[in-house]
Amino acid sequence: NKLKAVDIRKQDTTIEVLMTKSGEENNLNWQDFATKCGLSIHSTAEAESENRKPVVVGYDSAGTAFSRVNIPEVEDKELESMVNLQAESRLPLPANQMEIAWRADNEKEGQIAITIAAARRQQVQGFVDKIISFKPTNIFLDCEGIVKVCKEIFSGNAQNAVIINTDSRNTQICLTKKGELINAVALDMGIEDFTGVEAEEQSENIERFVQDTRSIVDLFGIDKSDKLHVFILSDGSDTYNDLASALKYEGLNATAAKPDTKKFNAKSKLTAEDIFEYRLQIGLALMIIETTGKELNLFKNIYKPFAEEKQTHSLYSPKNAGAIAAQVLIIFL
User: Fold this and answer.
1) DSSP code at position 250
2) Less crowded by CB within 10 Å, the N or C end of the chain?
């Protein structure tokens, strides 16, 4: 577990990585790390400055529950109350102990498909308390950052896809429809379960990984008419190729997706391994640079970014249109 940051600039279709920084293993002190990244602590003036780069923080979504519901087409003013009723019927705790975010798809055959994300308010508030000292511009779910980087950097741009992001000790499995996140599940297995172990143990772990992944894909309840692609984000090493082959043998249309180094300019001097190491941070940075306003925001009732309107205007002002930079911090729990 460690804190990581990137500072990037995107001009047209080319990305320049200005800085990468990684904290010490198991040192999750946000204030110390933010200071090392050049951010001011407890400085309202600096946070409100028009010259301040947007600062984006990623929230570990392992404790977030996702669901998908269909609601009859209604007027916008009625939609929110209907979504809240549907969400509350699925919550494990009373509504006043939960935070909810939702996103609507386009209407089809008189129905609107809704993606709902829910997390315990205590956990969400606890996270805000950790990062409020450097006043980030936005807080995004990490799984949405993974979806973004898969599409933009790993060429995983299929409309309907399962994206597998395997870290050292855990794995995220994200389901997308029309390029947007609609579900995510965490596995307590990671790349360390497939490397540095005896051959027999490795084989058993791969088999369990494949079976767990297959079960999750089935749990997603994907329409068989949807052409589903499975992308496992890869640094190009044999381990990820082996996992993709095992998933394909199980009947999944799996590919080990490597980062496209041509997306980055020469000044960045990044290898495929470097991009893979900071894939989540890059994805979160691209989200703020190319924000749609449709992100699942669990923090809207708890955290109000400082000078939100001013920073949004600055981010999209004509003088910044050619080169926008975003600095991103992310924590793994």
Assistant:
1) T
2) C
Parallel/antiparallel/unpaired status of strands 324-330 and 55-59: parallel
The owner of tokens 């088999």 is: 207
Distance between start and end Cα atoms, the chain: 6
Which runs of consecutive H residues, i.e. helices, occur in 133-185? 142-152
Cα separation, 277 vs 167, whole angstroms: 9
Cα torsion for 72, 182, 60, 162, to the nearest 10°? Answer: 170
CB 173 within 8 A of CB 162: yes
- Give Cβ neighbours of residue 194 (< 8 Å, ≥ 6 apart): 202, 205, 206, 209, 239, 242, 243
- 326 neighbors 145 (Cβ within 8 angstroms): no
Q: At 85, phi and psi to the nearest 5?
A: -65, -45
Q: How far apart are CA 240 and CA 325, in angstroms?
A: 31
Q: What is the pLDDT of residue 88?
A: 87
9, amino acid identity: R
**Could you report the per-residue pLDDT of 120-140, keeping only the tens digit for each?**
999 999 999 999 988 899 999
Is 70 exceeded by the pLDDT of residue 70? yes
Residue 65 three-state SS: strand
Could you give the C-alpha distances from 27 to 2, 187, 222, in angstroms and in order?
A: 6, 23, 39
The structure tokens listed for 202 are 């490795």
Which pairs count as long-range contacts for 102-109, CB under 8 Å and 24+ apart, including other chains?
A: 102/296, 103/180, 103/294, 103/296, 104/79, 105/177, 105/178, 105/180, 107/73
Q: 70 in helix, strand or coil?
A: strand
Partners of residue 68 on adjacent β-strands:
115
- Taking only Cα atoms into account, the Rg of the chain, rounded to an integer number of angstroms, comes to 20
Q: Report pLDDT for 257.
A: 96
What distance in Å separates the CA atoms of residue 6 and residue 282, rounded to the nearest whole number? 7
